[in-house]
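Final report, closing paragraph on structural work. Over the funding period we assembled a curated collection of sequence-structure pairs, and we close with a single example.
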Amino acid sequence: MSNQFQNHLPPISEIWVYLSGSPLLALVLTLSAYLLGLTLYERSQRNPLANPVLIAVVVVTLSISVLDMPYAKYFEGAQFVHFLLGTATVSLAIPIYKGFASLKGRMGVLLLSLVAGGITSVFTAVGMARWLGVDESLVRGLVAKSVTAPIAMGIAERVQASPTLTAIFAVSTGILGAVLGRYVLDALRVTQWWQRGFALGVAAHGIGTSRAFSVHPEAGAYASLGMGLHGIVGAVVIPQAVAWWF
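Its predicted structure, as stored:
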């Protein structure tokens, strides 16, 4: 009976061909890569250099390169995770609400920091790109990348930039901010959790906010606030600025 069953099994090569063309493979690959990154992050005592998103990006990139999987095919499966990105961003309003009482007396400083951080983010990226002679279509994407990825992609469509490239720029910015933010803030002797968290939220978006939550709840709440305010202001101001600037 078992021999007859084995004889009816398709060759492993046929099974692999089916799996490699299925969106399920990309979804499993994405979740597995992040789980690996999260495990390494926890085992490293939450060292920022072992950022789980960074590890997941590297693992997924290497995997689809080895499998020779086109990005369009990969995204057919990864889109299910991508769909949850906006929902996860909105859910960050919960810790903001819970920590709203602590904002008294700090809003003026926070708004000033928000404006300074947003302007610095845009001008440094655009200035460096133009100094290097980058194509204007890419420069527009760099303007929009200063806010979190879901909002940045919407802004990119309005300013005639590539949403895909803008998302890459935004995610790259978030990863760098989450990895290097601790060392920059330490060097600047910023010690208060609310100050560190707000800075990460403005500069490193959702990935920086995730890092802030993993370190301290107050830092996470203020990172959510910084990311949210930056996204709202950016969605209104950036398209107007691009229309005037370009």
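The chain is about 80% helix and 0% strand. The first helix runs from residue 2 to 8. We thank the funder for supporting this effort.
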